[in-house]
Please model this.
Amino acid sequence: ISYPKNRINVLLLENVHPRAEELFKREGYNVESYKHSFSRDELKELIKNTTILGIRSKTLIDAELLDNANRLMTIGAFCIGTDQINLAESAEKGVAVFNAPYSNTRSVVELAIGEIIMLIRSVFEKSNKLHQGTWDKSCHGNYEVRGKKLGIIGYGNIGSQLSILAEAIGMEVYYYDIVDKLPLGNARKCDSMKQLLRKVDIVSIHVSGELNNFHLIGEKEFQMMKKGVVFLNLSRGFVVDLAALVKYLQNSKIYGAAIDVFEKEPKSNSEQFICELQKLPNVILTPHIGGSTVEAQRNIAEFVPGKIIDYINSGNSILSVNFPNIQLPELHKVHRLIHIHKNIPGMLAQINSVLGKYNINIEGQYLKTTKEIGYAITDISKGNHQELIRDLRMIPNTIKFRILY
Model:
């Protein structure tokens, strides 16, 4: 009775690690994998027959695309961020979204630590000089990181792990987050971003991709910083006003900067990159590679398919970013009815009314809701329930319905 696995079509874009394709194929799904993203018109056609869509950060999924995706059951974001996906619209269409909130955390943190050391020692600038034949052996402007004050803006998975490693190499850690977060180790919480910016020697940004973080760091914030501060952004490109950053690099208020993300990024490796930060001294530019290590990409390519396959096979929605999270028991000699609906009063009563109409005994039932949708799971005894299935699909305000095994 379940949806046949050979009819589940997986579309993987943006060079997702081949381990993901391997896992989906092993499950019996049809998989198409591409190293690039597609134009909007191309994707509108491709997505029509797609059951599972896997993307990274460049592919934008909005309401119009979702309108063309009638067979779509789930989206996998093979990265941390999900701001490229319209999560609310996905939920309203019954499409569960999963991401990889932890899989590349260590890779991003290691890059941040490495860049802090290279900037504070002017390694990148001195290396460029040496490539040009200039021998600049001097300790002027070069410092140890030990004892320096690191300010972390955004104390989530990445920010908190950066806090631990930075403290382990002798740094004094301060952090600011709009959500109350428990400090790890000896990290100290700041009551405001202003307080943090005026205190620290190094600023590292690790906030989410929410639109209200647009130009979170701009002219006013750079003015608050200490002279000679080191600045890093490994979060989202639009979080920092680059024009203001250039200004304060040129007047030496900022000693050095490392930027891994940009408001406008090339769609492929063949497209030229142009940015106002190019050719400035003591500025490290990296092409959005914070999480791009072999280990991280393989971890992501195992974690995300694992969550998706579990959702398809058992209905588990745990760690979905837009669905009510339910951790379900294993299936044993039952049919599992999965009913996704608009969150309005009386939906569970209507489901149970239909079950009562056919004298169906409920073996187990689970319901969780968000503001917009409800996710109801009902385990019933096995049998031929074709009329029951039809009636459950016909309940008003049903978004999607399916039955497992």
About this structure: The longest helix spans residues 294-314. The chain has a mean pLDDT of 94. The CA atoms of residues 200 and 303 lie 36 Å apart.
